[in-house]
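Allow me, if you will, to draw on your knowledge of protein folds for a short while. Thank you for your consideration; the sequence and its tokens are set out here:
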Amino acid sequence: MKKVLKTISIAFVALVVLGATPKWAESLTGPQKNAVRSAKQYLSMMGFSRGGLIQQLSSDAGDGYRVTDATVAVDSLNIDWNKQAIRSAKQYLSMMGFSCKGLIQQLSSSAGDKYTVSQATYGARQAGACE
């Protein structure tokens, strides 16, 4: 992780020194850039839905960013939410058994992971919980 962060930092510094700034970095505010960094750290650890990641970043129990900053940060990233749903489904199945329907409900619940039903269904199927 440190090696990856160091490589990214070096590349970013090189771009700035050469006068080229990534497109997303030009338009994001300081808090939004920080929220992007936080989002990437969370995504490196586990699967998140768009709504779940925004909640994690904006929650008082999470990072405490403003919802608007968290939303802009998450939307500035190129995230495959179906892949995240598979990742989350596999994480659940590694901890306990779930029926196909139960896993889809957990993944798509507003009190759970907040994936869309389509993403949750895809994740559960790809993770092997459904026939």
User: Anything to note?
Assistant: Residues 4-21 have pLDDT under 50 and may be disordered. The domain at 80-131 is CATH 1.10.10 (Arc Repressor Mutant, subunit A). The CA atoms of residues 25 and 33 lie 7 Å apart.
